[in-house]
Give the backbone structure.
Amino acid sequence: MTPAEVKDLYKILGVGESASKEEIKKAFRKLAVKYHPDKLKGNKRAEERFKEINEAYQILSDDKKRQQYDFMRKNPFGARFGPGSGGFGGEKGYRFSMDELGDIFSGFGGLGDIFNLFGSKSKRRKSASRKAARGADIKASVEIPFEIAANGGSYTVQISKKDVCSQCGGTGAQPGTKPVSCPRCKGTGSIFVSQGSFGFSRPCPECMGTGTKISNPCSVCYGTGKEMQPKSITIKIPPGIKDGQKIRLANQGEPPLNGGRRGDLYIVVHVMKHPNFKREGDILCSEKEIDLATAVEGGKVSVDTLRGKVNLKIPPGTQSGTRFKLKGCGLKSKTGSMGDHYVTVKVRIPKNLSSKQKKLFKQFVSSLK
């Protein structure tokens, strides 16, 4: 198999190999409008061109399919698998370990379905079993109130994610039509490559291992079987969660291919700042300003906590910066126990004293000497 036998999908869409997903999408839409069969009815060349454009987009817009395509395009197994090599080495120096190859072809079954060493065409399997591909994981972020982060609870987040197309039901084909068997691999999803005494099967480059091709793509999802949809998801916030922590929601990611399971949804939690409280690790902290008289004579002051106001006893002669502990008034732990709340008092020094007050204060200071 030579590079010439693998279609240049980038050239078909008119983009470079390093094009971003947005650039690929923009190029596809422009070409799809130009060559759409509804616009050029009866033009067989335009119809074929549209199918070609759609096939290229289906592969290059999907991260996993694009990775597989790039691998086959740059090193379409024009490699040698020799004794002691430990992997494949291409003509341009590409080398892959067995684990790496397993990752690249994870959507098409195990390595046993890809390699059939020392085999012959007569002994190879007529059809390759294709392992159902798992849907892609999704990452989203949410900002939650400080109180929910401290005590835990439920929080509803609004996100947009790819889900099964509402028009075609995930087939990728326009309603009333359906995908057809790939003419190159006859629906098996793989083709056999022979190199002398070696032989192996690999994913079909025509259909990227799916075994099917879409002749009339859905007008909503453009043949991908997925569309962006707004979703309202309620997540359970564990008590004491920290800023930047992730919450995994199993099977809430993108829909699968070939009957596999959905990917997972990972929510990155960001905690809003609170005007009165802050965290130092697992400790809840705040400050309380007291007047000079209370600091000198002592007394009681009202302090805000996560569970309402409590009275804090200030002993006589309290210095500014003194830290007090309010037991059980802090953050809730995963086990349900309550942490402590530390309050640092700041003594408020009086300003703008009158002449009489200054005179009396000097007398007071002198009396302390």
Q: What stands out?
A: The chain has a mean pLDDT of 80. Residues 44-60 form the longest helix (17 residues). The radius of gyration is 33 Å.
